[in-house]
Amino acid sequence: MSNPPNINRLDHRMIFDWIEPNSKVLDLGCGDGELLSHLIQHKAVKGTGIEINEKAIYKCIERGLTVSHGDIDSALSDYSTKRFDYVILNESLQQVLHPEKVIIEALRVGKKIIVGIPNFCHWRARVQIFFRGKVPVTKELPFQWYDTPNLRFLSLKDFRNFCREKGITIVEQKAIAVNQAILFRPNVFARIGLFLLQKR
Amino acid sequence: MPQKENLGIVETQFFTFAQPPHEMVLESGVKFGPITIAYETYGTLNHNKSNAILVFHSLSMDAHAAGYHKGDKNPGWWDAMIGPGKALDTNKYFIISSNVLGSCKGSTGPASINEKTNKPYGLSFPMITISDMVNAQKYLIDHLGVKKLLSVVGGSMGGLQALLWVVNYRDIVSSVIAIATNTRQTAQQIAFHEVGRQAIMSDPDWQKGDYYGKSIPAKGLALARMIGHITYMSDQSMDEKFGRKLITKERIGFDFSQDFEVENYLKYRGDSFVQRFDANCYLYLSKALDHFDLVKGGDLTRAFKNVRANFLVIAFTSDWLYPAYQSRDMVRAIKANDLDVSYVEVKSSYGHDAFLVEIEGESHLISHFLSRMAKEHIK
């Protein structure tokens, strides 16, 4: 392990802080592997990524990561129960076909899971719907309805309710506004919500 | 990036072993020897012998993977990948490229002279398997003084050898790069091989394999190669390359002469193959492929039990001879053993041939994967 890293993205920094050193991590939708790479270098984790984008995979391999080309929906069945200490689903849950199945499977494969979601009910989004009568386009949800990779639109509250209904314990949660953590009315002011979950 | 250079002039070398009465025992139980294996090496073995990488070729290739043979215009078959500054960097690694038992490219095969009779073996050559090829290569690396392999690398039939190396010699192999390959030959693959074999065996010149010094079964072998070539390309790559282009004619002739460019190309491929390959060898090697089954009827997960190597598995989207889903199945079985495996499905329209063509993507993946392996395993 080396000196504390210089992590640019606040969501990455928060996830980084949650993860215990020397643990086993699966990052679902790991992108170019930036977060995994920090975790391996500075927390000595044993990390694996799943990524659908071929270019991003090349970058992961360049960073010396272990990564599998594939989609999240079908990736989890490859792994044995409790194989990982953490399964990360950051900014990827809203793009999977079967989010409930993926979360249940992630909770089987990982002892804890970390979910990061863009808040569809951020106040800017609410304003766009309410006053302009338009499906919102914001910094975290920058897509038009016809070209969005997002299949699911949910708020932090929706996600908390989902966890309660499914008997999933929220160990910790954090909310991010514009590059800072917030505590006040996150379902209105947070752009991103982060949840550390485990099975009850 | 370091400057990519060419290896310059290289030479094929030969190693002979299994002299009677110390013959090698084949998978069939037959004792066989002496055996010669043709090979080439590039780069230098480091002082603690931890930088060796074994490279395997596909069915019709040879030990000449990189550099130039004296007087040749074309370099070895994977020259784009092997050399100073290339993915298989000869400044860092000691590369051993091995021919296979049963080949007609310098190793002992059906076209070799049987010392007992002073005649070519022909069909008296024993049936061989991929496992026999791998065991013969083990003699070779022992001879070269290599005790550990940083990696074993191969595509297609070379990938099958790489997988058997990691399964049969798990204490020796630190990592494996398996490209456009699978864990068992499928019914479709066996079917294509059988059509190729029937083409050879139904050529009157084949003479039950006893054609050496006489007229060779050129038509049959050329036809087998034509069929093989179709399976190496894809619908898209063929259509892009040939489309419905006519050979020299203005219009399609109303007879059975060749009309289309693709027909001409296949004929050229078949005819040129006859110049450089032996028909019996094609029979033996294709049969060895057919017998390959890492699973042996059991569970694929078990095949990788007790293996410790790191894996890089590469498949190509348009490869229908070794489809990507078969690589994915392999990756799943490897993961089920809690092994370290990276898998990449490279988008390509070149079909099975992609593993010889998609150099840029492969170079990137292989060079960085090997850098990690070197960091973890070269002391």
Number of domains of chain B: 2
Catalogue the unreliable spans of chain A. none
CATH homology superfamily of chain A: Vaccinia Virus protein VP39
Order of helices and strands of chain A: HEHEHEHEHEHHEEHE
Main sheet characteristics of chain A: 8 strands, mixed
Number of helices of chain B: 11
| Low-confidence runs of chain B | none
- Provide the structure class of chain A: alpha/beta
Helix and strand element order of chain B: EEEEEEEEEEHEHEHHHHHHEHEHH
Number of domains of chain A: 1
CATH superfamily of the largest domain in chain B: Alpha/Beta hydrolase fold, catalytic domain
The description of the largest β-sheet of chain B is: 8 strands, mixed
Q: Globular, elongated, flat, extended or rod-shaped: what is the shape of chain A?
A: globular
Structural class of chain B: alpha/beta
Query: Oligomeric status of the shown chains?
Result: heterodimer
Contiguous helical run count of chain A: 8
Can you tell me the CATH architecture of chain A?
3-Layer(aba) Sandwich
What is the third-level CATH name, the topology of chain A? Rossmann fold
Secondary structure layout:
The complex is a heterodimer of chains A (200) and B (379).
Chain A: H1 10-18, E1 24-28, H2 34-43, E2 46-51, H3 54-62, E3 66-69, H4 72-75, E4 84-90, H5 99-109, E5 110-118, H6 123-132, H7 156-166, E6 168-176, E7 181-182, H8 186-189, E8 192-199
Parallel strand pairs in A: 1-2, 1-4, 2-3, 4-5
Antiparallel strand pairs in A: 5-8, 6-7, 6-8
Chain B: E1 13-17, E2 24-25, E3 31-32, E4 35-42, E5 52-56, E6 82-83, E7 88-89, E8 94-98, E9 113-114, E10 119-120, H1 130-143, E11 151-155, H2 157-168, E12 175-179, H3 187-201, H4 218-232, H5 235-241, H6 261-276, H7 279-291, H8 300-303, E13 310-316, H9 324-336, E14 341-346, H10 354-357, H11 359-377
Parallel strand pairs in B: 5-8, 5-11, 6-7, 11-12, 12-13, 13-14
Antiparallel strand pairs in B: 1-4, 2-3, 4-8, 9-10
Helix pairs in contact in B: 1-2, 3-4, 3-7, 4-6
